[in-house]
Structures are given as C-alpha cells and as structure tokens.
Automatic annotation (TrEMBL):
Biased amino acid composition, Basic residues: 413-427
Entry protein name: Integrase core domain-containing protein
Residues annotated as domain Integrase catalytic: 226-405
Residue ranges, annotated region (Disordered): 395-427
Organism: Sphaerisporangium aureirubrum
InterPro entries: Homeodomain-like_sf (IPR009057), Integrase_cat-core (IPR001584), RNaseH-like_sf (IPR012337), RNaseH_sf (IPR036397)
C-alpha cells in the first residue's frame, strides 16, 4: 500500500477538501467579486463590506496569550453579530447570491495558495468551532470551508476539553497524602520486622484491608531514610543487645584515687533493659573472696526483684575470679567475655563509667573509702530515680516519664521476699 501511494486508513476515512472542491467546481458560477490584499504578515480576503484575515503565522500560545486571544474572540463575536443584523433585511435571493460569491472566492483563494495549508489563529478556530458545531455532520460536509469538517469537530472537542480542565482542576496538585495512621503502621511493621521489604509490607497491609500502592510504601520508607530490606536484614551487635536487653547485665571495675592517696576499685553492674545501676561495693584490695561475696549479693538482689537476667557481659580483667562465673552459673546466668580491646561490646556499662567519672569522680574531692562509698550511694540513687535517659524517652530507671510508655522498674515487677541467707558486706 505504501509503494502504491495509498494513505493509512484514518486519512482515507472521508473525502478531502480538494476532492470535494473538484467535484463541486462545475456547479459554481463565475464571479469576479474578489480582491486579494497581500500584507507582510497576513492575507486579507475582502468580500463586500466584510473582511476575513488569515494569519500567516499561528497566534501566540500559552498562558500569556490567552487574554489577547479572548479579546480578539470577543471582537470577532461582536462584529459578526452586527453582520448578522445586516442580513435581516436581505431577501433569500440576495443571500444565495452572496453565498455563491463567497464560495467562489474561497475556491480562488485555495487555487492561489496551492498545497499550502491555511493557518488559523486560536481565536479564529474557537469562533468557527462554536459557529459550525451546531450543524449536522452531513450538512457540515457540504459547507465550503478552508479546513476539513473533521478538523472543525476536533477544534470543538479541544474547546470542551479545555473548559472541562479549567473547571475540574483540583485545589491541590498531585495525589492526596497518605493517612498518618497508615504511615505509622508501615514504619512500625518495618521496625519490628527488619527483613521485610516494601512488597512484603504491602502484602500485610492488603491482608488488613488497607488499600495502598506498593510505590506509596516505598516512598514512605525512602522519605524516612530506611534502607532496603537486604541492608536491614543483617544483625549487628547493637541490634542483638537491643533485642536481648531484658536478659543482659553489664559489669565492670572502676579505678579512682582518693585524697589520702589510696587507690580504690568500684564494682558496678547495669541492667540493659532498665538502665538501672547497682554499685556492689568499693575496696582497695579486690580479692577473689570480696568479688565472690559481691556477686552473691547481686544474685540475691536479682532474685528478690524477679529479674530475668541470663547473661552477664564483662571484660577479661584478671580481677574477676573463676569463682564468680561459677556462682553466676548456679543462678542461671552465663558469663560472656568481650573481645580483646573491644569496649563497645560492653558499651552500656562503659557509658555509665564515663557518666560516673564526669558527674561524680572528676567533680568531687573524696577523702577516703568511707567518703567514696557514701558519694557512690547518693549518685546511684540520683542516677536511678532522677537522671533523665535518652534511651528511656527522658525517663529514669525507677521513674517513668509522663510522656512515654515506660514504667517504673519496681512497679512493673512485683517484689517477693523468699527465705535466703543474710546479706553480708563484701568489705
């Protein structure tokens, strides 16, 4: 079909204006009532007292050209309204003669233009579309125009689309935002299930009857800075400590020197879940018997508090005797040794050591062991009941924050007093 010069089906659906004009040329009378004015920018076809300007270049478009186009369209409507009033006193014979003259002038204009297309301004298109769209399609096909009847109908469809687009424009652009409760649920699912990707989260939301696109879940995770599932699936040491916080304890020695020149050793234990600190005692000679007695006192305190500690993290300090691990094993607590020169494995305990030095040992003049022991008891009570902790939403281990769901350590676990041996001081 291409080699034979046959056009595609949309172009063969109806006769062209050239074919239509050729078929109607024999029935049109000759007339010399026609003048053509040639201007640099446009051709002016004058018929009687009216003039039809055909721009050589298409009119301005965009938002800046709309006011000018509306002004010209209003001018065209007013001038043609007066032209319609001029036709009222004319007889049908006079109108038929004028119509035949105008049709012949259009034929001459098309013959002079040759194969060049006539370019109409947007206001001319709007006026012709509004004027001719009321005619039936078969009548419109017999009207002599410079464009095809399908073109006039397309102009009318464009006008309707533009009007509909202006009246139905939403108040805010883009898709409506996702409901906050759905965003919170997505973030909660991802935080509690690090191995879930956005497709898995979308599946869980669908099972709950929540209609959200997978791309919406992906955009929410990206906006919150959450990495993809493969990068979140790996478990770090910090994640392990956080997930097993209820069963972990941290233990360490602190060295300090009092004003009398004596070196003192402080043994303390911290609970990972509640951040509660227990100062087990101070001594100038941390012997195996002293450490063992301090650990026995710790085990009895944990049993009184119904604690669920199963692991105790400590370093490889030689001051920790083997008897200490045996006492803890009998109580169901396993000792976990940190790596060589890896203090971050016991980071929570090391952080408390830093706080104790900055807030107490480096600020107070401690005379002797008795004075040090008294200051440590006061600091322990302050740390557990008053000092705010970022990990607990600004609450304290033994004081819940009014703006958080954290509860007091003593209120969340009932106390019981089983029969046990009397506690002895490790000193």
């Amino acid at each position: 079909m291409k080699k034979a010069g046959i056009d595609p089906a949309p172009r063969r659906s109806g006769p062209t204006w050239r074919q239509f004009l050729t078929a109607q040329a024999k029935t049109m009378p000759a007339s010399d009532f026609f003048t053509v004015d040639t201007a640099p920018a446009e051709n002016v076809v004058r018929a009687g007292q009216s003039a039809w300007r055909v721009p050589a270049v298409e009119g301005s478009r965009g938002a800046a050209g709309w006011p000018f186009m509306l002004l010209r369209l209003t001018y065209l409507a007013v001038t043609n309204a007066f032209a319609a009033l001029r036709l009222l006193p004319m007889s049908d014979r006079d109108k038929d003669v004028e119509i035949l003259a105008l049709r012949h002038q259009i034929t001459v204009l098309e013959r002079q233009l040759g194969g060049e297309r006539v370019r109409l301004a947007p206001e001319d298109r709007a006026f012709l579309a509004a004027l001719l769209t009321s005619l039936p399609r078969e009548v419109l096909g017999r009207v002599r125009l410079l464009v095809r009847p399908d073109t006039v109908l397309r102009w009318h469809r464009d006008l309707v689309k533009r009007r509909h687009a202006r009246t139905c424009r939403p108040k805010r652009a883009g898709r409506p935002p996702t409901v906050r409760s759905i965003r919170v649920l997505i973030l909660r699912l991802v935080s509690e299930n690090p191995s879930w990707g956005y497709r898995r989260v979308h599946g869980e939301l669908s099972s709950l009857g929540i209609k959200v696109a997978p791309s919406t879940v992906w955009e929410i995770l990206k906006r919150e800075g959450i990495d993809p599932a493969p990068e979140r699936a790996s478990t770090t040491w910090a994640d392990f400590l956080r997930s097993q916080a209820d069963a972990l304890l941290g233990c360490d020695f602190i060295e300090t020197v009092t004003l009398n020149g004596q070196r003192q050793y402080i043994l303390a234990v911290v609970e990972h879940a509640t951040r509660r600190v227990r100062v087990l005692g101070t001594t100038a000679h941390p012997t195996a018997a002293w450490v063992a007695q301090a650990i026995k006192n710790l085990v009895m305190d944990l049993q009184d508090a119904d604690a669920r500690a199963r692991f105790l993290i400590r370093d490889r300090d030689g001051r920790f005797p083997t008897l200490m691990d045996e006492i803890l094993a009998d109580a169901g607590v396993q000792t976990v040794l940190t790596g060589v020169r890896i203090p971050r494995m016991n980071a929570i305990m090391e952080r408390w050591v830093q706080s104790c030095r900055h807030e107490l040992l480096d600020r107070c003049l401690l005379w002797n062991q008795r004075h040090l022991h008294h200051a440590l008891r006061e600091y322990e009570d302050y740390y557990n009941r008053h000092r705010a902790h970022q990990a607990l939403a600004q609450a304290a281990p033994l004081r819940a924050s009014p703006h958080s769901d954290h509860r007091s350590w003593t209120a969340s676990r009932p106390h019981r007093t089983p029969a046990r041996p009397a506690r002895r001081s490790p000193a």
